[in-house]
Amino acid sequence: MKHLDKLIPMVLGLALLASCADNDALGYSVSQPDSTANLNYLKQYDVLKSYVDRTTNPNFKLGTGVSVSEFEAQGMPYRLASTNFDELTPRSEMTHGAVVETDGSLDTTMVAKFLSSAQSAEMSVYGHTLCWHSAQNGIYLNKQLEPTAIITGAGDLASAYCFKATNGKLVNPWECQAIFNFPSPPAVTPGKTYELEFMVKGSVEGTVPVSTFSDWNGSDFNSAINVTTSWNKVTTTNVMKDGITALKSLIFHLGHFVGTIYIDDLKFYEVDSKGNVINKNLNTDNWNFNDAAVTASSWIKFGWSSGTFTEYGVSKAGEGYEAGITYVDKTDAEKKAIVDGELERWIKGMMGTCKSYIHAWDIVSEPMDDADPTQLKTGKNIEKQPDDAFYWQDYLGKDYAVKAITYARKYGNSDDKLFISDYGLEAKDDKKLDGLLNYVKYVESKGVTVDGISTEMNLEMDTVNIDAITNMFKKLAATGKLIRITQLDLGIGSGILTGNVTDAQYRAQADMYQAIIKAYFDNVPAAQRYGITLWYPLDQITGSSWHSGEPIGLWTQSYDRKRAYGSFANGLAGKELFSSDK
What we know:
With 582 residues, the protein is α/β, with parallel strands linked by helices. The protein has 14 helices and 21 strands. The strands form 5 sheets. The protein has an 8-stranded parallel beta sheet. Helix 12 runs parallel beside helix 13 (503-523) and helix 13 (503-523) packs parallel to helix 14 (563-573). The longest helix is centred in the middle third of the chain and has 23 residues, at 332-354.
């Protein structure tokens, strides 16, 4: 659910363009090509929300996903949303990653402003989302779990810098290189043996080959260095090659090391045949990397794939190794207590800002594992987690949803409706659906209440199956809980982009939208119908991170109604409202 919320009106072709009714109603006017006359029937439709029977469906909200910045601008996206829908769901701006700052504080200024704007537009807001593994401030959260620094001598955390680099992709070792240029190249003698010694640790374990380099002349050290997840002193030796009398650089081949590496306290010695150090450290300038400016200028990227580095250069103060500081790993119990406290603080802060206006939330999103839906998702097997990921369940265990619900009840409103959501529930094999239903039962066995279940339906025409969707709604309804489509969009599939879609494909898409809405109303009793949210109302622009260039919406990028608009309205009304040219 990571999205690029940039919408740029554009003129589309025959199969895309529909009625100009919404352009007129929303104060945005364009001419209608004669070739779209077969879509004139769409002019007869009213706004979408007018087709919801409020008497029969008192709890039902017709919603849409929004970009907060676009809604705040009160342009076309604002007018489209406020005219056609009852409810708004910010796609990303209310997530942990968007609100929690680098120091852990919560900046809810934008959230509060958005809620005020929604209230002025007389639209409700659905909370998205309080406990999710994605769109989190993983950098801050993981920082809280790092080893505790205990000062045992003269160590100074304020100046404890080191070299830090993160390689995000597996390539050949020589394709992704970190080159250390000695600030003062040490004098060396060809044929003599030299020892390289430094402190190193990584976010993952691995090995890193090291080479000398001077005027395109050099050789490998006799062994690759072993990297562990704790600071460790490593040494390796090299017989200086002919022609090198002043060693200019060292090359660290990081192509096979996918993760973050920290290097500090780099020393270089001449040794005798028995490995005994003959003279003092030859790396005399900034050997401990505590001068951040010199360190930054000493390291350069090299290699065909050096673009795989996602960070490179000087670490933050306190991340380097200091001899007078002992780093003690936190116990599992300590980590659990820290994560528990962070979850409570986050939910408390959001409720403090939102409880006066928001009364429904996705409290937990996407808990079930894709490969084995009987189990929770985990990040433990991901070698390099992205900075915006954090798996709360890896520290709090199976009860993480119980804790999230407990805190939401404690700090929210007594009448808040709390939903657990997931995607893939409409799969033919029922495995994800059954896994989620069993997890909801488990959560409630711990003494908390789950008010509803949300299904994330980001679908494609080439894989969607209406029978499986009908089965899903029947099984969800059998729980007796509130049922909500928390995200709905429908692509043509097979990567087909807007410019290549035929009118026949648009007809099929429209029919499927109507079938999905009908399946919801036919199989979910009225008292359990909590709403449907159209995740993106417009077709997507090229370059969007969500279905880039695909026609998933009910409107084109020019704000013209598509066949899908009429069929969506028919589904809400429960009947064929106006005749098309079908």
